[in-house]
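FYI - complex with flavin-adenine dinucleotide, inputs then prediction.
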Amino acid sequence: MGFKTVFDDCDILIVGGGMGGCGAAFEARYWARDMKIVVAEKANIDRSGAVAQGLYAINCYMGMQWDENQPEDHVRYARNDLMGMVREDLAYDMARHVDSAVHKFEEWGLPLMRNPETGRYQREGKWQIMIHGESYKPIVAEAARKSVDRIDNRIMVTHLLMDENHPNRVGGAIGFNVRTGNLHVYRAKTVIVGAGGASHIFKPRSVGEGMGRTWYAPWSSASAYALPIMAGAKMTQMENRIVLCRFKDGYGPVGAYFLHLKTYTQNAYGEQYEANWYDDTKAMVGEYIDHHPTPTCLRNHAFLREVAAGRGPIHMVTTEAFQDPHKETVGWENFLGMTVSQAVVWASQDIDPKYINPELTTSEPYVMGSHATCSGAWASGPEDISPSEYYWGYNRMMTVEGLFGAGDALGGTAHAFSSGSFTEGRLAAKAAVKFIRDHAKDRVNVSDKQIEDKKKEIYKPLENYQVGRNEIVAGTVSPSYLLPIHGLQRLEKIMDEYVGGIGVNYMTNEPLLKFGLEKLRILQEDLEHIGAEDLHQLQRAWELKHRAIASECVTQHTLFRKETRWPGYYYRGDYLKLDDENWHALTVSRRNPESGEWELEKAPVYHIID
Ligand SMILES: Cc1cc2nc3c(=O)[nH]c(=O)nc-3n(C[C@H](O)[C@H](O)[C@H](O)COP(=O)(O)OP(=O)(O)OC[C@H]3O[C@@H](n4cnc5c(N)ncnc54)[C@H](O)[C@@H]3O)c2cc1C
């Protein structure tokens, strides 16, 4: 096919130049002036990842300089929101360092709003500070760019490579340039994965022409999970998918509305409904419903029950707050900094929130490790606070040696958000440098055979297409290949119907999950026959493969946890209650890379913070 192979040897390879990746790039150079640091990014780091369009708030800032919050408070908050289930060591470690990351952003030129009376950063809520964040990502990317030896934009990393000199140690990564098609082989002593979470594994509310309109970025294609899973790394809390309550159709954020503008919700008949579901929720989750603030999933639960009772749609009451011109401006600006499309949707539907209370909806589920849920790789915590079961030598190192993660890639660390993901990147990079220095004598060995095998696999969709298209007599349907869009829609349908998507009101059970796994197995077989017409479709094919393997992991975890821990995110119809006696535990999985078999186990949740 005439593509070149480009080899690169480096010390630290960062896969994905999002918030976690940029944090890793910046910090790695601080500790390792003498090392070669490279970022491989499938888009362009200036506008890539979940922060691509910008943000209006930094959602994780302690404010320790003014004694606003302490890291312990944040751990309690995240633990409460996740119904008890976080890795408190990782959460504490992120929280104690996050403020310094935010101070760096300001130093680099990010405009942070200030409260004119106190001179402190303008709070949106207890944890959030408000920013003029349209250029958040380019500002952070500039710092990363100036720190590393090279940023390779447009490289879709498809696999991690293993070091054949050492068992269970990473040896680099491989992928292709989505513009030139060239194969890129990175032999690296350490790899830090920061490739974002997973959208489009469940069928979205908007399909057909509108399928790109999801809350979570459509380009977040689960690589952060698939890459470690394929390398045999352990994963945790993959069942803990997130469902967002957002403005309907545009998925505009509601945080500033609730917290800053003090808007509230009501049903179709103008009634407030959340309190009516108190007894119902208490019967499912016990005293968790009495916690303050009410865990996000439980608020979703009340929303879903109210709609199921026939009193939808649910509206956000904006008509009161928007009479105040300042609040009206903030309401609109909130979208302009991060979700312009919500303003466009309202304009196109003749909705002026000053006079009409806009509808809310619940999204399809997504899998993320840095927002309000904590799916991702099982990683070592820091030396000083982690219990022995959570610590194996290097902070943020996965169970594959030399393989680190940050942001959505890592499990157990909910509510890190943009600033916390950047911070995790910094922590991972510092530990990666230490790993390299501790193993200074070791040489990475990635054999030609390993590279050749992967190369064949990577380009196979192009070959499938070239051969298979000769069998087409009319239209686009080939007897011997399927196209990425067909595979994606099939995956989304399986996940939706069997694993608890919108089509079944987030409900699933053991028989459904087992059927789902069987269908995912057959899909995996068929994905061997995926056809890619061009390089763009080759990227789509690999994104789909990554989504499919992450979906399998989500399904396995959902099957394993025999309780409904987070009503409002998903329900196990056969175990409709939270069960602290048996399931006050983290779930951990490992897929055997040779056999494809999964093993699942429980890991203890240590409450380090009282
Ligand atoms: C809709 C939405 C709204 C949010 N709002 C806020 C907010 O208001 N405030 C806040 O603080 N946080 C917010 N967050 C959270 C924040 O954006 C994330 O926590 C953060 O971006 C996660 O960082 P990350 O590095 O894990 O992933 P990302 O920043 O998403 O970066 C992932 C990177 O990996 C690249 N990549 C993916 N796959 C590959 C591959 N195979 N090969 C190479 N590169 C790859 C991507 O292109 C991307 O650059 C929001 C998130 C979302 C989705």
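The mean pLDDT is 96. Residues 15-21, 40-43, 48-51, 55, 57-59, 156-157, 194-196, 215-217, 219-221, 223, 370-371, 407-409, 417-419, 421 surround flavin-adenine dinucleotide (CB under 6 Å).
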